[in-house]
Amino acid sequence: QVQLVESGGGSVQPGGSLRLSCAASGIMITRYIMAWYRQAPEKQRELVAVIGSRISTKYAESVKGRFTISRDNTKNTVYLQMNSLKPEDTAVYYCNAKDVSTYWGQGTQVTVSS
Length: 114
What we know:
mainly beta; globular
């Protein structure tokens, strides 16, 4: 059974930082393109960051320079370091694994508010 379990969400003030983790089981993340998506209330789910099997990365324009995606293959875990957080970053953040099959985590809430 494949599971992607996100953690690390929470509430933070503007300008703060959070690090999200996505622990995978049932798959080896080295074989998947791993990504973080987010969905704000009444908005469509959007791609935030992607990391390929060769550690290539891609980011949404809105988070470039502030967010960093990384992977630890020994822990089978993907991370999203989020710095200089803004209120518009408030959303549920989802981990995604894509190859022939696609898997989603349950999501973790990030709230940026003063």
